[in-house]
Structure formats: structure tokens, C-alpha cells
Amino acid sequence: MTRTADRERIQNAGAGTRRRIATGRWGGALALFLLAAAPAFAVSNPAEMLPNPAQETRAEAIGHQLRCLVCQNESVEESEADLARDLRRVIRQRVVAGDSDAQVMDWMVARYGDFVRLRPPFKPATLLLWGSPLLAVLAGAGAVWLSRRRLSGVPPAPLSEAERRQLGKLLEP
Q1: pLDDT for 59-69, tens place per residue?
Q2: What is the pLDDT of residues 138-152, one digit of tens each?
Q3: Which of 59, 49, 47, 53 lies closest to 98, judged by CA?
């Protein structure tokens, strides 16, 4: 149907039909929003959660500091990946076993390296990682400086007589 036909159909419809048509259009947007928000409820599975609220809070805090190795831009707590689910389970097992937060983090780093931390420590091995934003800004400033330098240079030389004749021939109808 065309937009004009849709408008006429809506104008001629009763209030109930108008509501159904509007819900249909917004219903798709609502479903899309709920699908996009699903990763935010990654640990909503009651089977994953610890019965002790204090331990669960500690486990969640640790999980928010660790990177999902599959998604790489989400924490273990936010990810729906199978590996993230396994890491959440390991975190909770170690918390229940009595490990401190530092011990759990050290265990994860020993197994997966500093990459598993969302905020890696500042040390020589991670210097490039921490310095890359500054390098990017410097590269951008250098590019701007070079482009301005080229634009403010000497204007091009005027056309020679031969070049003018050739240009005139090319521009003739």
C-alpha cells in the first residue's frame, strides 16, 4: 500500500482500529528495543546467581571488571556468550570457596593475561595500550598541520600560452 492509502485507511478507521495500527508500528520498535536490551540482563538466570546476596554482589563486581574474551567490549557480567557464562560460574565458585577479590582477579589474569581486565594495569607491557589515545591525537594534529601547511603554500604558476591553447580546444563546443 502507498502512504496515501495508509493515511486514508487510518482516517476512515474507528478508534480501536487506529490503536491496533499504532500498536503494530510501535510494537516492532518495542520488540527491537527488548532484543537490544537483552544482554543487560545476562545474569538474570536464577540458576547462575548465588543464594548469599553479599557473595553475589562481590561476584558481580568482579565480573564487571573482567572482559568477555568473545565480545571483547563487554564485561563478563553483561555478555551472553558461552565463555562469559563459564567465567561467571568460575568467579562464583571461587567467591564461594572463600577467595578474595584480588585472588579471583589474579587467577583470571594468570590464566588469560592482562587482556582479560577491562582496565589493565599500567606497566611496560601495556604502555602502548595506555599511550595509544595520545598517539592518535598527535597523529590527527600532525595531519591537520600538514594539510594547512600545504594549503598555505605558494599558489600554482599561471598557465603557459601552450597550456591555454590546449585548454581552449578542450572547452570548445
Answers
A1: 999 999 999 88
A2: 999 999 998 887 777
A3: 59
Confirm if 39 and 79 have CB atoms less than 8 A apart.
Answer: yes
CA atoms of 164 and 38, how far apart (whole Å)? 67
- Residue type present at position 76: V
Report pTM.
Answer: 0.52
Per-domain boundaries in the chain = 3-39, 46-116, 124-171
Q: Contact, 159 vs 167, CB < 8 A?
A: yes
Cα separation, 86 vs 117, in Å, equals 16
The three-point CA angle 51-76-112 to 5° equals 115
CA 107 to chain CA centroid, Å, is 27
For residue 13, count other CB atoms closer than 10 A to its CB.
Answer: 13
Q: What is the CATH number of domain 46-116?
A: 1.10.8.640
